[in-house]
């Protein structure tokens, strides 16, 4: 036991130091990873709740159902699901025919489609964990679960955005109209209800949307020569803590009472497509893996056994110009990555694991959390698989989409700040926010339609924060270190509720570190590192380009206005305007790290 504790203590110190310095994740040696995995299996995670000992690779990796069409109906419903062969089924939420998660939806570029979304849930699997002190919450939310379906990464009219105040309660429904304006890409849909996102997503309300076009058709004759059918595999990655009775636990911090917001909880078992540490037989050939970090809090540094190389061919917004070779990739919550891995490069009988060695964010690391090291296993069979080869180009060649456009010249620079000023590693971070503002504060960003802006996203915290913009896609320019002590000394933070986003230029302490090559394409979520200014380049589309007014005022569903502290009002209606930008650590967006923004006519 003492050896395990010393290993964890050493790694915990390394994690805190690396994250506080804004450094990239440091790799964990194979022997250390195995030791950590053994600790998890014995349930020895210090100071944290933990799952019962579970044997990896007892379950086959599920393939989620695939649906398509221009008129789709999905309901969010209550169900039960067994996450592991040695656990009984526990209460969950699911979409459509799934008892946990939702089907993968295929849609087509240029083809509008509708999704009728209904809420038929009864109660909530995590009702005891609902914090009624958060923005807009009340006791009724434990039993009448508010939901809001958001198609993450979609270019969508305001009335179908899945805004956090567009709540649908049990017995109600809403129809979203999706424009089909997205390029071929891997999007995902998930619940986005105000102050309930972490609860509802953890309970199961999420799924993937694969957008196809005439080049990336998803069929075997696609013009890009990419694996398809059985050789294309969506992977929804999560981490959880399980209870011995098969139910889920969203609690990771024993010092926070049940029913109170924790600020960010890690898990000790990896979950892929709804199963804990599953295994899958694969043929000897190329596979296309469509991966989403659907976790609540953790950033993962993903790699395969023996650092087996793979190729990144796309990210949030679609395909890159050409494949990018890699042996690991750092994926924050809500980020997606499209990769090719050649299981024909290893011998039949090889066991290839999808692994993680990223230190947990600083708050969790300070409590003793260590990297959750394992997601799933692939068993390489002797049968031949997809042999189409690795494409040299994905854009710009004959019969391919156009190359990514050159970066346009910005006409405006906007500074925004990411803050949690009440204590760094302290457990009570009640002032988590963007720009020092509450969600309900009226001082919001108002970029003009048609303008190109640089956003300087200043992360003043000791943790990474993935920042997501609704509606607009962007390109990542780089990350620049900043002297935070001088920045905050020269510009003291005012009273909470007053905007604080001072200019950063004279506090930058080094050159811009360019994004990883795989980040070169269109993004909707960017991981901002501690003590850095992350620069993104974003163009806000116009009404003429979109075919709808992105600044339209629209009525929220009757009876669902989220008051600041008085609960979701059950009478009247609300007017919602614009979109949102927020941290996509779900615990964080549920507690004031989310703001509205409007795109105004020029």
Mean pLDDT over all positions: 88
- Poorly predicted residue ranges: 1-37, 39-46, 423-429, 557-574
Shape: globular
**Sheet having the most strands:** 8 strands, mixed
Strand content: 25-35%
| Secondary structural class | mainly beta
Approximate helicity band: 10-25%
Topology:
Layout: H1 2-20, H2 30-41, E1 66-68, E2 71-81, E3 90-95, E4 104-108, E5 113-119, H3 140-143, E6 149-152, E7 173-178, E8 185-191, H4 197-203, E9 206-212, E10 232-242, E11 248-249, E12 269-272, E13 275-276, E14 279-284, E15 286-293, E16 300-304, E17 310-315, E18 318-326, E19 329-331, E20 336-342, E21 351-356, H5 362-366, E22 374-384, E23 412-419, E24 433-434, E25 452-459, E26 465-469, E27 474-481, H6 484-490, E28 525-528, E29 532-539, H7 543-546, E30 553-555, E31 575-577, E32 579-583, H8 586-589, E33 594-597
Parallel strand pairs: 1-4, 2-5, 4-9, 10-15, 14-22, 23-25
Antiparallel strand pairs: 2-3, 5-7, 6-8, 8-9, 10-11, 10-12, 12-13, 15-20, 16-19, 16-21, 17-18, 17-20, 21-22, 23-24, 25-29, 26-28, 26-32, 27-29, 30-31, 32-33
Family: Belongs to the multicopper oxidase family.
Protein name: Multicopper oxidase domain-containing protein
Organism: Rhodococcus navarretei
């Amino acid at each position: 036991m003492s050896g395990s504790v010393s290993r964890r203590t050493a790694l915990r110190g390394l994690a805190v130091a690396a994250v506080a310095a804004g450094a990239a994740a440091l790799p964990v040696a194979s022997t250390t990873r195995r030791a950590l995995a053994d600790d998890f299996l014995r349930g020895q995670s210090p100071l944290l709740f933990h799952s019962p000992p579970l044997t990896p690779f007892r379950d086959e990796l599920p393939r989620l159902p695939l649906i398509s069409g221009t008129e789709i109906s999905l309901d969010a419903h209550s169900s039960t699901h067994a996450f592991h062969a040695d656990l009984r089924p526990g209460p969950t939420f699911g979409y459509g025919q799934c008892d946990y998660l939702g089907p993968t939806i295929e849609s087509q570029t240029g083809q509008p489609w509708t999704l009728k979304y209904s809420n038929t849930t009864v109660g909530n699997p995590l009702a005891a964990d609902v914090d009624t002190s958060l923005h807009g919450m009340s006791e009724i939310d434990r039993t009448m679960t508010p939901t809001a379906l958001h198609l993450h990464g979609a270019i969508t009219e305001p009335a179908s955005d899945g805004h956090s105040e567009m709540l649908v309660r049990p017995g109600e429904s809403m129809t979203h109209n999706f424009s089909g304006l997205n390029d071929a890409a891997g999007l995902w849909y998930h619940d986005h209800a105000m102050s309930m996102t972490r609860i509802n997503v953890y309970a199961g309300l999420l799924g993937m949307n694969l957008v196809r076009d005439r080049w990336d058709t998803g069929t075997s004759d696609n013009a890009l020569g990419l694996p398809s059918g059985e050789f294309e595999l969506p992977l929804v990655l999560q981490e959880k803590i399980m209870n011995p009775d098969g139910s889920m636990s969203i609690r990771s911090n024993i010092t926070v009472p049940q029913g109170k917001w924790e600020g960010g909880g890690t898990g000790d078992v990896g979950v892929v497509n709804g199963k804990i540490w599953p295994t899958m037989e694969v043929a000897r050939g190329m596979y296309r893996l469509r991966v989403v970090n659907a976790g609540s809090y953790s950033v993962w540094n993903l790699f395969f056994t023996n650092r087996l190389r793979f190729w990144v061919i796309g990210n949030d917004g679609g395909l890159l110009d050409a494949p990018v070779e890699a042996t690991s990739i750092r994926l924050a919550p809500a980020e997606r990555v499209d990769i090719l891995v050649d299981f024909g490069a290893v011998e039949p009988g090889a066991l290839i694991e999808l692994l993680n060695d990223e230190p947990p964010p600083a708050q969790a690391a300070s409590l003793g959390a260590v990297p959750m090291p394992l997601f799933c296993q692939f068993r390489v069979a002797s049968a031949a698989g997809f042999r189409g080869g690795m494409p040299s180009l994905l854009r710009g060649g004959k019969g391919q989409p156009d190359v990514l456009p050159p970066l346009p010249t910005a006409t405006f620079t906007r500074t925004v700040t990411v803050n949690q000023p009440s204590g760094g590693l302290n457990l009570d971070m009640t002032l988590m926010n963007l720009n020092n503002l509450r969600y309900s504060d009226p001082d919001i960003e108002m970029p003009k339609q048609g303008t190109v802006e640089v956003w300087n996203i200043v992360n003043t915290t000791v943790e990474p924060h993935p920042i997501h913009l609704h509606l607009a896609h962007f390109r990542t320019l780089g990350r620049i270190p900043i002297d935070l002590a001088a920045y905050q000394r020269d510009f003291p933070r005012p009273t909470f509720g007053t905007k604080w986003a001072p200019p950063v230029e004279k506090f930058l302490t080094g050159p811009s570190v360019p994004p990883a090559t795989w980040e070169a394409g269109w993004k909707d979520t960017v991981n901002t590192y501690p003590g850095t200014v992350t620069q993104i380049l974003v163009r806000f589309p116009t009404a003429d380009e979109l075919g709808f007014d992105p600044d339209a005022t629209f009525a929220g569903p009757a009876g669902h206005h989220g008051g600041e502290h008085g609960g979701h009002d059950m009478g009247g209606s609300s007017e919602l305007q614009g979109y949102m930008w927020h941290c996509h650590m779900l615990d964080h967006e549920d507690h004031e790290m989310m703001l509205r923004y409007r795109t105004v006519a020029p």
